[in-house]
Amino acid sequence: MRNKNLDDLDFLLRESVNTIKGSIDQVFFGILEYLEDSEKQIFLDHLKKNSDSLQDVLYESIVERAKQLNILNDQLLETNSELVNLKDTLELKVIERTKEIKQIQDVTIFSLARLAESRDHETGEHLDRIRHFSYILADFLFKNAMYKDEINTKFIYNIYHTSPLHDIGKVGIRDSILLKPGKLTDSEFEEMKQHTIIGGKTLEDAEKQLNSNGTTFLLMGKKIAYFHHEKWDGSGYPYGLKNKDIPLSARIVAIADVYDALTSKRVYKPPFLHDDAKQIILDGSGTHFDPVLIDAFKELEKEFNDIREGQKITIPTIEKI
Predict the structure, then answer these.
(1) Using alpha carbons only, how large is the chain's radius of gyration in Å?
(2) What is the mean pLDDT of the chain?
(3) Predicted TM-score (pTM) above 0.85
(4) Given pLDDT bands bounded at 50, 70 and 90, which one contains residue 2?
(5) Rounded to whole angstroms, what are the CA distances from 90 to 79, 80, 85, 138, 317?
(6) What HEC string does 271-304 produce?
(7) What distance in Å separates the CA atoms of residue 156 and residue 150, rounded to the nearest whole number?
(8) Rounded average pLDDT over 270-289
(9) Which domain holds residue 34?
(10) Are 169 and 202 a contacting pair, CB within 8 Å?
(11) Is the same domain home to 128 and 44?
């Protein structure tokens, strides 16, 4: 079966040759006028041997060239198809590798945070609950268009995976203070407050080593570590930030951290009941906590209690988020 492109070209070539037939004949006879008789015979014998007419000589030459171009076009299409397949393969490998890197990153973050918490054996599940509390708050805000200029799926993903770093600075606090089974003295509390600076500075230094210009996964972790003890009214630490000067991620983790601290057993206190902890959180609206986040907490208080009791929630995979 002939190639459609070649059939079309064949028609156009024949039409073009017929159009210029008169001119070709003029050239043909013009050449004969300038040749000697012996040369004329040689020329005519050559044409007769190779073609019935000068037009056919021209036509066959052009058609042969068109065939060659058509073959080259087919080869080009085949090469282009191979390049598309190669591109798709490379893109798939990049996606798979990116997924692997994210998984390694997430495991590393959580392992690092667990190492920091390992000195206090009573808070073994603390980190897992913190990231689940933080996740459901951020997800609720996103779905209800609250703080829509700040929250997107990447924010939700990052807060789930970096919120466990909130207390990483406690590695720099003495055991006699960190594990003290009683109320801290004023000077001990001042030393305890330094865990925010230690943690934030540690992650800030790590971020600088990556030369990331503040765009890595460590950026949110750094903000959380520095500012999760700041309060809405400016009475928190370490810098006394207030209202929206406190990063949203830190404001979210502040609620998660306080709720978990209240409802968990510590060396210095028994756990609070959910309803008691809930009321303390609600009473902190506008003073300790962002009022908008407290509105979200009210809607999620059952989910908070479910997580506290050990119920697991489904977190979207890397591909979905």
Answers:
(1) 39
(2) 80
(3) no
(4) very low
(5) 16, 15, 9, 34, 22
(6) CCCHHHHHHHHHHCECCCECHHHHHHHHHHHHHH
(7) 10
(8) 96
(9) 4-89
(10) yes
(11) no
